[in-house]
Specification:
5 strands; alpha+beta; five-stranded mixed β-sheet; 148 residues; 4 helices; globular; 14% strand
């Protein structure tokens, strides 16, 4: 099993069987049945924070793509420096693998990071964004509710 396949299995995108093909070789953009003019129209499934958040630089986009065609919208938001939450739960597994590969290349190329938040949900953060986990940093070892 190759390293990409192992990573996909770890991320929960594929089963751990070796007989399954990684990419759908028959995939073509033309088979989608869309016209060249309307394929990159702004998608109503993309939600971005309000304009007041834009002024302060605090925007996060949530994208729920239906197919690999929606990867361009993810890339455009990420290039603008907007952290993107990608929910792949409604996608076909083959296209979900392709979107994760695209997102991994995107974050590598722009020096960002990609993190799995939940099963088939990923957070893409630009290089200048710091992720703060929910772990308490300065809490005493004996705990907050210690009454002794």
């Amino acid at each position: 099993m190759g390293s990409v396949r192992k990573a996909s299995a770890w991320l929960g995108l594929v089963e751990d069987s070796d007989d399954e093909r990684y990419y759908d070789d028959e995939y073509t953009e033309a088979s989608q049945g869309s016209h060249a003019g309307d394929q990159w129209v702004t998608d109503p499934r993309v939600k971005v924070a309000s304009d007041s958040a834009v002024g302060r630089g605090r925007r996060i986009a949530t994208v729920t793509p239906d197919g690999f065609r929606d990867a361009r919208g993810i890339g455009e938001l990420f290039r603008e420096g907007v952290p993107v939450i990608v929910n792949l739960s409604s996608m076909d597994p083959a296209d979900a693998k392709r979107v994760v590969d695209f997102a991994a290349g995107l974050t590598f190329g722009l020096r960002g990071s990609i993190e799995r938040v939940a099963t088939r949900v990923f957070l893409l953060t630009p290089a200048d964004t710091q992720i703060v986990s929910g772990e308490p940093g300065g809490r005493a070892a004996d705990g907050f509710f210690n009454q002794s």
